[in-house]
Amino acid sequence: MTIQQAQSDVDDWIKKYGVRYFSELTNMAILTEEVGELARIMSRTYGDQSFKKTDLAKDLGDEMADVLWVLICLANQTGIDLTEAFEKNMAKKTARDKDRHKENDKLK
After folding, report:
1. What domains does the chain contain, in order, with CATH numbers?
2. Which residues contact 62 (CB under 8 A, 6 or more apart)?
């Protein structure tokens, strides 16, 4: 699936099942909430925190997909072509950082 197809699929789903997009501000709050859920799993799985007995088993991939879903919603409703934006961002990072990380002693 391409990014463009994902944007189209989300838009089709919203039109068929979601009635309409939530407002941009609501979706920004939901994105923050979803990133928090992802961070909780990451900090307990790869960090120093442990899971509580009351924590429900969460699927890391599913949480990442939740973040992606809401990000795509925001892109769709603000007119952002994520493929184009990502390609520009990759070019920017490459131009800016092509040697930076290779020269970073902390990464060796």
Report:
1. 3-81 (1.10.287.1080)
2. none
Give the pLDDT confidence of 75-90 residue by residue, as tens digits.
999 999 999 999 999 9
The distance from CA 77 to its chain's CA centroid, rounded to whole angstroms, is 16
What's this model's pTM, rounded to 2 decimal places?
Answer: 0.90
pLDDT for the residue numbered 35: 98
Q: How far is CA 90 from CA 68, 75, 82, 95, in A?
A: 18, 17, 12, 9
Q: CA-CA distance, 55 to 104, in Å (whole number)?
A: 39
pLDDT class for 55, splitting at 50, 70, 90?
confident
Query: What tokens appear for 46 in the block?
Result: 């790869």
**Number of Cβ within a 10 Å radius of residue 34:** 19
